[in-house]
Amino acid sequence: MKHLLILFTAAAFVFTGFTSVAQNVWSLQKCIDYALENNIQLKQQQLNTQYYENQVSQAKSNRLPNFNAQIGNDNSFGRSLTYLNTYKNVNSSSVSGGASTNFTIFNGFQLTNTIEKQELDLQATLKDLQKAKDDMILNIAGMYLQILFAEELVLVDEAQMEVTKQQLSRTQQLVEAGSLAKGAQLEIEAQLAREELQMVNDNNNLQLYYLGLYQLLELPIAESFKIEKPMLPEIKANISMANSFDVFNNALHVRPEIQAAQLRVKSAEKYLEIAKGNYYPNLAFNANYYNLYNNKYTDINGADIAFGDQLKNNGRSSLGLTLGIPIFNQFQVKNGVSNAEIQIQDYQYRLQTSSNTLRKEIEQAYTNALAALNRYISTEKAVVSMQEAFRYVEEKFNVGMVNSVDYNLQKNQLTSAQSQLLQAKYEYIFRTKILDFYNGIPIEL
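^ that's the sequence the OP posted. Answer follows.
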């Protein structure tokens, strides 16, 4: 027993040191808000949405004409043809420049369809971001409730230990008075040692749950906190839950993973229209301007031509339309269309898979919630009965009518039932919160 007390004291000291720096009390909403603002994975997902925003911007900009200018310098050495139709060694330097523009007038509606496709892809990515946030919220809520459960379990341990200590004191008095054998005292001491060890284990689990929450928030232990203890809803035998079928039908319209899959099907359909656009001719407008200056250019009399005169003489421009007519391109267009149709089927299957996964998750949450509710109701009755039975056994034990083995057995059964009641309580609360979340109701405690 001495060793167990030392172990318990050490564990309590470690746990106290672990939480001593926790000056703040965080609510569930504060935990969620912090995670949504600081989680690295969510920030990476946000970068992905920015990438698709740029894709939309570029698709819209592709409708604009382009404009480019160029300038070049050329130095020539050696023999050159003169205006007298003779050759002589001439070193010359020339500067040329020009500008051009072109834009697409028609290309089978590919520009318009590309813009719409990129916008759909952006919307799907935003839904992916919302799904990542929802997953984070569920994970935090689950860990938060796990901590609440662990803290209540520690309180049960403390209450049971207090009862055992009181019983040990009474038993010692009875042993000293000769009313009970020494073995009864030893049995109670062993029971207390077992309860002390259980409390150490439950405190360690509580510590690990807190650590799990800190890591979800990506907070170091040095910035740890205690969670707020909210008023939890009362669980009654006549409580009703939303039917899983109704929750699923509603979730199909509000869940981001379903909306993202639907948007990607529409995006694939736009990609098919883009591929079909390659069947059409494309029409483009283009314009060009070019000019040249050479320091050795001379007129018929051999006089150097001035810079301004060269610009007037050498400048030229052009305007034109280009019509491209697809005739035969090794079946690239045909195969591109076929691949786009395959992609539509693939995303339709992905949509169905997302829908099936959502349905299974809702059915599982509903089944678990219903089982937890039934377990809570039955266990609650058992706890009430065991509390009364333990009180009766305790009274008989105090007058020597029941031995310590039967006393400890009854007490252990009561503790086990209380633990099961707590577990069923928090399991039910968490599963119903999941159902509410799928139903579009924010998680709150």
